[in-house]
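Protein modeling request. Please complete all fields; requests missing the sequence field cannot be processed.
Requester role: graduate student
Desired output: 3D structure, token encoding
Chains: 1
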Amino acid sequence: MEAHEEETATALTSRRPLPAPPVELREHAGRMPDSRDDPEETYERLGKVICDHLVAALPETWSFEGKRVLDFGCGAGRVLRHLIPESGRAELSGCDIHRPSIEWLEQNLSPPLNVFVNGEHPPLPHPSGTFDLILATSVFTHLVETWSAWLVELHRLLGEEGLLALTFKNRGSFEGPARAAWHEDWDEDQIGMHVYGAGLGWDKGGPAVYQSQWWLRAHWGRAFEFLHLEPESVGQGIAVMRKRPGHFEPEDLEALEPGEPREIAGLRYSLRHARRESAFRLEQVEGASERLRHRNDQLARTRAALERSRSELRREKEARERAERRARGLMARLSGRLTRQLRALAARLARCGLRIARRRPGRLS
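Delivered output (365 residues):
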């Protein structure tokens, strides 16, 4: 048994906390709320709350005994880790598009978890009817273009009477759009599937997808029977659905509900707000561009000032070098002139000394 397997097994038997992922993986699943509590404890507590609410929403007859469970979009196991006590009687799997999260799970919680990386688009590498229960928390809250394809894929992966338990955004999690001055308040009869922040990158949280309850029943309800639908629960709504028999294509779930006037109202609402949001984002881009131009102008002025300073320093240096050359030349000329004068003086002194020596009588020996 490898070291991480022994650590996981010890944690399970001793009820010690399981190893926690590093902060960058914890925040990949969603930034933790500001709190004075320990970040690892907050991550652990929130994951357990979500897991407990999902399990509580399952039918009373549900049992993990002999079941195969998949956490679709498991991240680093924020929710899945709290099902590990069931690993003795259920087969637990998880997948995510984020490879670093899966690699951490492989190194720390596998086994008992079976984890793998999935792509942006279906399918998953499993035969039809593989799972009895599929969980998906904070997944369909961000899928704009591929929601129907993935919903059909999860339908395929569920066995007969298989359950899908997931979270969705509804009025209880409408705080993002509600903070925008240009955005209208939540209106269940005016909203179908509504996307806020469609162009936002994942570093800013990505797009947020909101669905009204009538829209979920009309579209998702074609492939699934709703057993539980709670619009406000763990910061998001919770839906538990049972697989309906039959084969479905994404287009089957996307088609407008016949005779439902709220479909048109919902499309108008989304179109109206898409235009407003586009204008708002454009103002943001233009404002950022203007600030960037201002900074570039400041940089250009700073560069020009630096260049002027460099030019002045070069001129000062050149002037100093010229002065030094002139000084050295002057010193050389003065030194040569002085040397010639001294030599001439020495020569005259020498000649005078020779004449004196000749006039002085010599000493008799």
